[in-house]
Design goal:
Layout lengths: L1 H27 L4 H24 L8 H29 L4 H23 L7
Length: 127
């Protein structure tokens, strides 16, 4: 599982880099902040799905709509967990403190990995 988690982290860096590149390119091209953000996150999520499916979890074959919807639902759960931890950490570490972000991001990464592994990209016969 440690190799799988390392590939998951590499995938996260790749989709974050793509997302930021698209956000910056859209802003440079004159798009508004919201549009740029949506384009960057959309591209990042698409890359995340693709790399996680094949590179991290080794799933092949046709992609189903249910698989995509489960992936997006798991993303929302992980992001919600991130926000919950952040809201607890901010009064302790400070509203604008990077220290408050650390446990929030760690929670997001672990939640997204475990739920993706268990519910989104399960191989046939896996329990």
């Amino acid at each position: 599982m440690s190799g799988q988690f390392a590939r998951f982290l590499l995938t996260g860096f790749a989709n974050s880099a793509l997302g930021w590149a698209i956000i910056l390119a859209c802003l440079w091209a004159g798009a508004g902040g919201l549009a740029a953000n949506m384009a960057g996150y959309g591209a990042g999520l698409a890359l995340s799905f693709t790399l996680n499916r094949r590179f991290v979890f080794g799933v092949t074959g046709d992609v189903s709509g249910r698989e995509v919807m489960t992936f997006l639902f798991v993303f929302l759960i992980a992001y919600g967990a991130n926000l919950a931890v952040l809201l607890v950490a901010q009064p302790i570490a400070g509203d604008a403190s990077i220290v408050a972000q650390v446990p929030a991001v760690a929670t997001y990464v672990l939640t997204f990995f475990l739920l993706s592994r268990r519910f989104v990209f399960r191989r046939e016969g896996a329990r």
